[in-house]
């Protein structure tokens, strides 16, 4: 299988760097093909702007969606964007690895999604009708592929539990896992999280790589998070609210898993 | 009063640009002082890296927290970071205005938080003991100041409601409002949100600016979101889980408001 690792950490000699190297070696040893988008090493352009469409009239009003659509359709995207889209097409599974900074991904990776997820590729796909609202949330260009987050945090496990002060990790990651991965069609596996990264000694590192190795071995077999598919009949269209008879009375993120 | 507007949109001739200009004029007309950090116009460096500490040994291992701490303590931060910290010290209230891209703020603004919130300024403040876990979540360098998000989205209002497919807007914004604003001490006002931005005609624009004007007039009087303060006794230390007798059985983000 083909695995892409999109990786954002500024220091190769870090826990993240070591875990990324471990993942590459482990996947290669299992016979998989691996590509890594090491965003810091690539000096990835984090900011979406008019320069992302090569044939843009600089005097024209910039529209993030319409300019992206034009560039994607006409082959006038910035070359770095096209290269990442090609890696996504190639991949059967994608790992997104990053330290949790301010309860989300680093800016450099956020900018990867903003720029690589062009209109017509990451969103704006499919038809809108009285039965469908585009190909998204379970359908889209990345359908059939799997994705998994590999996340490190400085806080303690308990700080990210159901009643922990930071909020549950699964809820903090919902905008990413549901809104950025399930949205264009990925099947999203539960995240692999390592907390309290300042206290990783040799024993804990060995334990962590063993656990990560198991998760990598299960990339093709593990059950994804059972997010509800948008066009499955569970949602009213066009309101896109969950049907009243499903999970009655439940609100918030949890309503969107079966 | 002094109001800072941190603003992220790539096109001045946009709805966001018009609303930002309206806010500036409205606040000035009320006698307030206003500064704007227009991140796209400033060509803000979105990516946190070793260059943010001016006296760093380039051969040394980069540590985002420790290098930030050193630079903040020794006055060797990149000048753009120091300038933004000074604006925050000056401000009595801060508006953060942005289009919701992939269910969060644009990368350029995420990078503003990552770089401006230095160790010792945005986090790593205060003492840890058996009764306190640092000055954060209601205490910190920005205590006494107010913050409010001004957010635009392309989706419909119903898509962001309690059972809407995107997840409730208040939950999508929790990592920002609780994790990035309340964390260093801001009192956070409910967000001002405008949905379905492709359908803003003159009538709706007039209605929107009237509503925004009212919110700006209420910056000093409106009740903030009643997030629980970390060191108030509501949380066990060091686990930082909510005491069992408070909101018994409630999990997730809602447990952290009174």
Explain what you see.
The structure is a homodimer of 258-residue chains. The first copy, chain A, has one domain: Rossmann fold (3-Layer(aba) Sandwich). Chain A is built from seven helices and six strands; from the N terminus they run βαβααβαβααββα. In chain A, 30% of the residues lie in helices and 12% in strands. At the A-B interface, helix 4 and helix 6 of A face helix 4 and helix 6 of B.
Break the fold down into its secondary structure elements and pairings.
2 copies of one chain form a homodimer.
Chain A (H helix, E strand, L loop, with lengths): L1 E6 L7 H15 L3 E6 L25 H11 L4 H12 L2 E7 L7 H10 L29 E7 L16 H4 L1 H9 L4 E2 L3 E3 L7 H16 L41
Parallel strand pairs in A: 1-2, 1-3, 3-4, 4-5, 4-6
Number of helices of chain A: 7
Distance between the termini of chain A: 28 Å
Q: Structural class of chain A, please?
A: alpha/beta
Q: What Rg of chain A, in angstroms, do the CA atoms define?
A: 19 Å
Strand content of chain A: 5-15%
The CATH C-level class name of chain A: Alpha Beta
Specify the CATH homologous superfamily of chain A: Flavodoxin domain
Largest sheet of chain A: 6 strands, parallel
CATH architectural category of chain A: 3-Layer(aba) Sandwich
Helix content of chain A: 25-40%
**In the CATH scheme, what's the topology name of chain A?**
Rossmann fold
Largest interface (CB < 8 Å): A-B, 64 and 63 residues
- The ordered H/E elements of chain A are EHEHHEHEHHEEH
Tally of separate domains of chain A: 1
Mean pLDDT of chain A: 97
**Shape designation of chain A:** globular
Oligomeric state of the chains?
Answer: homodimer
Number of beta-strand segments of chain A: 6
* Low-confidence segments of chain A: none
């Amino acid at each position: 299988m083909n695995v892409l690792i999109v990786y954002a950490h500024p220091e190769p000699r870090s826990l993240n760097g070591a875990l990324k190297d471990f993942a590459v070696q482990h996947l290669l040893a299992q016979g998989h093909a691996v590509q890594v988008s090491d965003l810091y090493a690539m000096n990835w352009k984090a900011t979406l702007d008019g320069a992302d469409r090569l044939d843009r009239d600089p005097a024209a009003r910039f529209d993030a969606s319409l300019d992206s659509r034009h560039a994607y359709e006409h082959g006038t995207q910035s070359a770095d964007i096209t290269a990442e889209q090609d890696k996504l097409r190639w991949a059967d599974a994608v790992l997104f690895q990053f330290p949790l900074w301010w309860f989300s991904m680093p800016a450099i990776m956020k900018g990867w999604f903003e720029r690589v997820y062009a209109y017509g590729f990451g969103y704006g796909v499919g038809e809108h009708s009285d039965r469908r609202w585009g190909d998204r949330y379970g359908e889209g260009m990345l359908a059939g592929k799997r994705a998994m987050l590999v996340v490190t945090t400085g806080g303690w496990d308990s700080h990210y539990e159901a009643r922990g002060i930071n909020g549950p990790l699964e809820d903090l990651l919902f905008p990413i896992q549901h809104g950025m991965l399930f949205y264009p069609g990925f099947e999203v596996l539960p995240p692999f999280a390592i907390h309290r990264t300042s206290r990783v000694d040799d024993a804990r590192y060995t334990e962590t790589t063993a656990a990560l190795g198991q998760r990598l071995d299960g990339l093709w077999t593990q059950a994804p998070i059972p997010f509800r598919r948008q066009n499955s009949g569970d949602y009213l269209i066009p309101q896109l609210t969950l049907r009243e008879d499903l999970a009655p009375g439940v609100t918030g993120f949890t309503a969107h898993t079966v």
